[in-house]
Every structure is written in C-alpha cells, then in structure tokens.
Amino acid sequence: MNPINLFEQVNRNFDKAASYLPYSKGLLQQIKICNSVYHMTFPVKRDDGSIETIEAWRAEHSHHKLPVKGGIRYSPTVDENDVMAFAALMTYKCAIVDVPFGGAKGGVRIDRNKYSRSELERITRRYTYELIRKDFIGPGIDVPAPDYGTGPQEMAWIVDTYSMVNKNQLDSIACVTGKPISQGGVRGRVEATGRGVFFGLRTACEDADDMKKFGMRAGLDGKRVVVQGLGNVGYHAAKFLQEGGALVVGLAEYEGAIQNPKGLDVDAVFKHRTDTKSILNYPKGTNLPTSYAALELDCDILVPAALENQITEQNVNHIKAKIIGEGANGPTTSGASESFWKRGVMLIPDTFLNAGGVTVSYFEWLKDISHVRFGRVGKRFDEASHTRILRAVEEMTGKRLDEAKLKDVILGADEEALVNSGLEETMAKAYTDIRGIQRDHNDQMDLRTASFIDAIQKVAVAYEELGIFP
Ligand code: NAD
Questions:
Q1: Which of 9, 75, 193 to mutate to test the pocket of ligand 1 (most atoms within 8 A of CB)?
Q2: Mean pLDDT in order along the chain per 10 residues (470 residues)
Q3: Which CATH number fits domain 34-183: 3.50.50.60, 3.30.420.40, 3.40.50.11540, 3.40.50.10860?
Q4: Is 254 touching ligand 1 by the criterion CB < 6 Å?
Q5: Which of 272, 331, 395, 407 has the greatest number of beta carbons closer than 10 A?
Q6: In the chain, count of helices (H) and strands (E)?
Q7: What angle do CA 96, 98, 103 make, to 5 degrees?
C-alpha cells in the first residue's frame, strides 16, 4: 500500500549504524528481523446490517525483553510492511529511552471517519479478541497503546474486552496503555508524546555551541516553529513549544495549512478547526494551499507530526528549517535524511524524539501492575517533611514565611508532576546519550545513526548476556 518500503528504510538506518559496531552478522540479523507477525481478517457487522471484512496485523519485532510494546494505528493505507517497520522502530525507541520492553505495532486497515462509534467499538473489540486468541496481548506478553487514528476510547474497549476474557487476572488492566484515568490510565499520558517532543527539542536547543552553528542563540525563546499535523502529537508539541517561548509560525493539517510570521495561537487554531472542521480561514492567519507548502515555510524548527514519508528527495531541498524534530514515525526518508546531513541541517530522529509516549506508557504499566497511583503513598509524608525543615529554618533565622508561599514550597508531588518529571529526565538523558555518541565519532555521523548505535548496543547486550551469541 505504501509506495516507500518503510521497513527497508528502517533497516537502511540500522545497517549504517551497525557498520560502526563490532557485532557478528548473526547477532545483527537477530536484532534486525521481526520475530513474529500475525495477519488477521475478521468480519464486522455495519450499522445497516451488512457484513464487511476487516484486515489487520500485529507485529512483534523483538522478544529480547517482554512484554513487547507499541501502538495500534487505524489507517486506510496501513500494511504488513508498515507494522513491521514501526514495530522495529519501537524496539530501538524503547532501548534509547531505557524502557525495558521489546518493540511491537498493530494496524487495522480502516478509515475511521467512515465508521460510526458503535462500528468502531465492534472492530476494536473483535481485533482485541483475535489478539487474545493468538496470545498477542497480555500484561507480560504484548501491551498495545494508541497511535495514528486511535486514542483513549479504543484503549478502554481493549482493556474491557481483555478483562472480560481473563476474569481472574489481577494485572489485566496492564494489558494496554493510553487508557482513560478511570480505566487504569495515568495522568499525563495523553500529552506525553507531544510533551516529550518539547523536552527533546528544548534540550537540543539549550546547547549553545550547536545553536551557534546555525547563527542562533541557545534556548527555545523566539525560535520560529512549523508543525505538521494537529492530532495528539502535533497539537501537544505545538502547544508546549509555544508555552516554552517558541513562536509557532505555521500549522498544517491534511486539508491545508496556515501561517503567520508573527505567531499563531495554537489553542485558538485548534478551536477554530473544531468549530469549522477546517484549519483554513483562521482569522489571524494566511491560508496555504496544501500541508506540504507548510513544510517549506521559512522557520527555525520544523516538526512533522502527522505521517510517514512527508519529507522525501522530492521536497527536501525546498525545506528551510535548520532543525527537523521528527514527531511522527518515519516522516523523513533515508535519502532526504542524507540531504539534510550534507546541508548541515540538524535532524532529531523519531527513535528518540517521539519516545515520550512509550516512556509514559511504561509509567502507566508500572502503575497498573503495582495497583497504586504515583504519589499516593509519599505525597503527604513529603509535605510534612518539607514543613518540618522550613519550620526549623524559621526558628533558626527568626523569620516567618507567609502561609501562601509556604504552601508552594512544601508541596509534595502528585501523579502528574511525577510523570512529567520522569519524562523530562528521560528525554534529557537520552538526548545527552545520543549527542554524546555523535561527539565520540567527531560529529561525523547524524543523530539518527548515533541513536541506532545506542539502541543496537543495548539490545545486543541483552542477547549476549543470554549467552546465545558468544
Ligand atoms: P492522530 O491521529 O492523533 O493525529 C494525526 C493528525 O495528522 C490528524 O489530525 C490528521 O488529520 C493529520 N494529518 C493526516 N494527514 C496529514 C497531512 N498530509 N498533513 C497534515 N496533517 C495530516 O495521530 P498521532 O497519535 O498524533 O500520531 C501522529 C504520528 O506520531 C504518527 O506517525 C504516529 O505513529 C506517531 N506517534 C504517535 C504517538 C502517540 O502517542 N500517539 C507516539 C509516538 C509516535
């Protein structure tokens, strides 16, 4: 279905990184291949009583760690090759951000806009049932999550179906992440991928030497950003980048794009699109004819956050951004990545930059298997300790803090604060790690290659320690 073979693209990046590493051919092959793929077809009854056959997949790329993890996409173009490619990306992504899972991905070939809510529910529940039948889902086996075209509602149907079949399984709510809070979700998961994109870009932009190469000052402040895709990843990335001081000068959706060199208000544009069903004709913006036109706008940071293969050899030379932040999976083909590298454009790869989703999914899974909300046990204790310390300082200094200030200072962390700070730490550390690998190679490789080196090394250790590859 997809004109560009995504799995081949991912493997090309893998091979490039592997050429720097000392591992045997056999070990590299074992890391690279997809361990299992389940292709299924099942019937669904439409609201008008007719029966339609649905085609779907689940790919488990690497069983070096269990469970495996990866989103489910609902898209009319998804195919087996795509899910294998995205599953492979998940393996590398989990390794880069030290999430102890193998990679997986699911796909259901439907255009969700053509189905009613009850039809979507029947499709989701049947897909889940098919996964259960073949042991392709379970808290310790394979844990799906949202991806393109799915969200908390589908995850709620999945956990409900799984729990109905596995009635006495204590950890059944950990069979899927990205659920609503009432169904065992974690606060901060919905925003996590976009927030991770923000943390990743902010960390990269804090490097004064790197920014100097582009004639820019360190920090996000005032940097002009264009975001493609105003869905889960794109909307949140744009919102947090704006809140972090960046100027969002262009936003794109599939029906077209808008720009304003003085900045667009992300929430106002989002509301305009919800109200009018189109991003176009936003009163404080100028229309652009296509989503692709926005990619070519004059800006400092371009965030493709919609779909794969958006930047190809065809349009790469028209792109003016100095930094590309891959919010989507596979938005840049390997040929286009090479052009960016030759032109000195900094490409921050998907394998790192959109890993915020799986990081917080990991936190959700931990919450579900431990059956306790983050912060519940320690919050009050921390607040009492902080109060005692402050009271002691007040006694020593003879000065009293006013009560409003005191409340601010003693505040113990709740679930959302802990999740967000865990995500911030993860993204900052992972960026430092991959940028470090790049520096160790005298900056003679791009960040994508550095990120694959990081991932391959971590997966290789797992196999080597099993003693399979002496
Ligand atoms: P989503 O369905 O919430 O949003 C995608 C948005 O892109 C939609 O608003 C859609 O209308 C828009 N779009 C489609 N074609 C477009 C085009 N040609 N130009 C501009 N906009 C277009 O999906 P999402 O969850 O935000 O996922 C987006 C990308 O991020 C995918 O590549 C996905 O694999 C990746 N990703 C998602 C997550 C997650 O947690 N949701 C995590 C990691 C990676």
A1: 193
A2: 82 97 96 97 98 98 97 97 97 98 98 98 98 98 97 98 94 98 96 98 98 96 98 97 98 97 98 97 96 97 96 97 97 95 97 98 98 95 94 93 86 95 98 98 97 98 78
A3: 3.40.50.10860
A4: yes
A5: 331
A6: 17, 12
A7: 70
